[in-house]
Write a structure and sequence with these properties.
28% strand; alpha+beta
């Protein structure tokens, strides 16, 4: 499992993220506090809100390319 901190600065960022996530077979979740949603669900992702630090969890191997493509929303 890989984890990353992410933040969406706009709904367009969330749409871009989900578009990339859907291209990979890995199961992914996004967590904010005690709420967790499927990272491939646009409604779920938008429901967590923009301008909030979120935790991305990617299950399985081979997600380095995915994380590289999502640099636009990752934070340290």
């Amino acid at each position: 499992m890989q984890t990353a901190k992410i933040i969406f600065r706009s709904v367009a960022d969330a749409e871009r993220f989900v578009s990339w996530a859907e291209r990979y077979p890995n199961h992914m979740d996004i967590q904010c506090g005690n709420r967790m949603v499927d990272a491939k669900s646009l409604l779920g992702v938008i429901g967590l809100g923009v301008e909030r630090k979120l935790n991305l969890k990617i299950y399985g191997d081979g997600c380095e390319e995915l994380l590289n493509n999502m640099e636009f929303c990752t934070v340290d």
